[in-house]
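Think of the structure tokens as a kind of shorthand, similar to the way a musician reads notation: each symbol stands for something richer, in this case the local conformation of the backbone. In the example below we present two proteins back to back. Begin with the first one, reading the sequence and then the tokens, and try to describe in your own words what changes along the chain.
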Amino acid sequence: MNFLYGELTEPPKDFSPPETWPEYGLLAEPLGFCARESVGSAPMGVRWSAWPLTFEEYVSDREPDVEESKKGTLARNRWVTWKRISRADIPPGWRIGPKKPWRIDGFHTLSSGDYTGIWHKNARREARLWRERHLDVTHRIEQASFEEFKRAYLMSSTLKKTGMDMLSILERKYALGAREYIELWVVRDIKHTLIVAGTAVINSPSAKSSVRFCPFMLPAARETFASTGLVDYWFELSQQRGVRYQVFTCFWQPGDPKGWKGPAEFKSHFGLKYVAYPPLLYRFVRGKVF
């Protein structure tokens, strides 16, 4: 398929989407009002329910075991989706959903040396200007509490464009025990002490990967290159920690909201290759009525 932002590639053998990382906190993804439980083991999935509807989802190239999934409090009649990583066949009993990738992610493979060397020229320029004019001169990067992060997000232009969904998921990840692997970074205006931009990152030591999550920016940050500065800081720390893959999720493709195009264009500037995951599969599985 043609892809607007760059080269589509087969995922490396040691690459996996964030949903497969044990540190990611997948159980936090369903909507907050839903009952939820982990299900299965190889692969592990998540099941959620808002009566009378129940859903189940897996992200893996290994076929979910629907017999094993009959265990659990929420094992009612349910709609099961299987999101594959690279596997192309359709095993018996499964049907294909919309014939488009269930998502397109980008990744940068970190190594020693200057990671900005393969960045787009605009990103290199913005990183240079951020370091020269703003970093520890007019603004600084620091860790924030979730409460500070949330207050700043609620004042951002990002809220108007994308709403509360990602912030709500981040808050549930904290509540459900993933906070050990989450860092919250903000850019603070030194003179006025105001937060003008921020991002979360979720780190996976087991997958040697890190993903950017719930970034935001206030109008006051527009001329500071703060968003690029946060990405640069993330790359620098990940390189020091021996992270292999820097992951950017949810690139725009036809059929997605037009509002995704701007953020996707920004993300594409950081020396990425792209993975288009195969169309999702689904099936209906019978279970208990109550």
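Once you have a description of the first chain, move to the second and do the same.
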Amino acid sequence: MIDFTKLNYLKIGNEKQRIIYEVLTKYKIFDILKKYSPILAGTIPIEIDIEESDLDIICEVKDKVEFEKFLIQAFKDFDLKIEILKINNEKSLVCNFKLEEFPIEIFGQNKPTTQQNAYLHMIAEYKILQEKGEEFKQKIIDLKKQGMKTEHAFGMLLHLENPYEDLLKF
């Protein structure tokens, strides 16, 4: 299985992944976020992204106020939008900005990145895609192009009652 905790797989991925690797490396995004154990999660690593998909970078954040100050300083040259939200009953920090042509979403939660739902869902979805094959993958992409969220697309095709919870069982 691919080690999604490192970015190396992007170097040998599809064209978009290779470009993303170059952009993230050029701006040293993962070096800047290193102490927060960043992982690129979401649809781009598992190649089910659509044109408007953003780069979801998850981070382990113990102090949201300190992290917000850090982001404002580290990315001061970008037009940041930062919010503190409650997601899955947990306070989470979400920071959005644009890096070249790519929308970036940095997501911080007080939980190791490999235990966050974004990572766990991605791993489950990756395993399902490996098992189900290219036709299934294309159906997911088609549903996403129609506006469906990733987990809902998997839920519909796999007949899951609660895709957000049920995907974690794979």
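Compare your description with these statements about the second chain. The chain has a mean pLDDT of 96.
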